[in-house]
Amino acid sequence: MLMYFIYTPLRKNRYSLTLNEIIRTTGVLLDGKNFFGPVASYTEHILFRSLSRWYRDSVRLAPGLLAMRFRRTRLRGTFFFSPFVVHSRLFAFCIYLSFQTTQILSMSAKSSSTIVLGGHKHRYLDTGDSSKPMLLLLHGISCSLDFFEQTIPLLSRSFRVLAFDLLGFGGSAKPKKAPYSLNLYSSLIIEFLAKTRNNENEKTFAVGHSMGGKYLLSTALLYPDSFDKLVLSNTDGFIEQPGWVRGISLPGIKQVLKKVFSSKLVSSKVFNTAFHNPKRVNNVSYKKNLAVSRDKDAIETVMALNRNHKQLDFSKTGLRQQLDRLDIPVLILWGDHDLYISPSIARIVHDEIPGSELYIFKNCGHSPMLEYPESFSNKVVRFLLNDEQ
C-alpha cells in the first residue's frame, strides 16, 4: 500500500495529494468484496468506521497533509520516485494506515492455533459463540480446514465452530510412518472433542466432507454417543478402491507421481474436477486450497493411506456392516455433477444409513461448500437446529 503512494505519477514538476483523495483511494484498495472475500459482510461496518477514524486521526497526525508535495530525482535519464525523498508527513500517514489495515485484518480473519493429538501437532480453529452448540468440521483428502472457509463465517452465527487439519494434511504434522487407520483417525477426533468441549453434556454436531465423512461415521460407530447429529457431504467409504490406485503408491512409482501431481498444470486440472463450475468458487479461496492440494508432504500422506487401505476401508474393517446401529439423525448432501464420487452413491448411502435424509445440489460437483456456501450453510443449520427453532 505504501508503494502505491510513493509511485503515484506526477503532474509536471509537483503533485499535491489531498486527504480526500487518500481516503477515496484507500476505499478502493480496501474494497470489502474484493479485499476480504468471504468475510466482506462481517467487515463492512468495521471498514466504514475505520476509514472515518483514519480521516479524523490523520488530521491530528499531519496538519499539513492537505498540501503534501513530492520531490522528484533523476536516475539514469528517467524520473524515479525514491521512498527516501517522500514527504515525511505522507510517510508517517502511510505507516499509520498500514498499521490500521493490519488491525482490521486481525479482527476479520479467523486465526488458527495448534493442539497436540496423539502426540502430533495439529492445526485447528475455534470460532463463534462458546455458549452455542458445538459444530465440528472435517475436511477431505488432500485438503485442510480452509476448504470450509466460505461457510465458517456463516455457520459461526449459529454454532461454536471447530475444525482441524487431519493428521498428514494441511498445517498438521505429516508423519511418514504413522499407522494410518480408521481407528487412529477416530481416536484423534475423540481426543480433539475431549480437549475442546466446554462440558461433557454439550451438544455436539459434525459435518464431514468426502474422506472426513467416512471418518465421522467411523467415530460415531466406534465411540457411540459422541455426536448428536451428523452431516455427510459427498462422503467416502461406499466405493471400493481400485487395485491400480494402491499400486501407484509403491516405491519408485510414487516418487515420479509425486512430482507430477504437485505440478501446477496437473494439480490444477485434478482440482478443477472437484467443481461443476470452478468459476463459482471465490478466487482467493480457490487459489489457497489449490496450493494446499499441491503440498508434496500431503501427497506422501495420500500414498501412505493407499498402502494402508485395509485399515482405512469402511467395508473391510466391518464398520459399514454396522451402520444399522447408528441411531442419530444424519443428513446426506451431494452434488449432481460429482466426478469424484458418483451421485448414484448418494442413494446407496441414504439406503444404508437408517432414517437419513438426502439432498442433492443441482449444477454442483464434489464440493458444495465452495460452490454454494450460502445454500450449503443454510441446509446444515436448518437440519441441525430444526428441533430448537
Structure description:
The protein is globular. It starts with a helix and ends with a helix. It has 389 residues and is an alpha/beta fold. 44% of the residues lie in helices and 14% in strands.
Rg, please?
A: 25 Å
- Using the alpha-carbon principal axes, give the shape: globular
DSSP helix fraction: 40-55%
Q: In total, how many beta strands?
A: 12
Q: Which structural class do you get from the secondary structure elements?
A: alpha/beta
Largest sheet: 8 strands, mixed
Which regions have little confidence, pLDDT < 50, spanning 5+ residues?
1-109
How many angstroms does the end-to-end distance come to? 46 Å
Oligomerization category of the chains in this entry: single chain
Approximately what portion of the residues adopt beta-strand conformation? 5-15%
Please trace the helix and strand order, writing H or E for each element.
HEHHHEEEHEEEHEHEHEHHHHHHEHEHH
Number of H- or I-type helical stretches: 17
Integer average pLDDT: 78
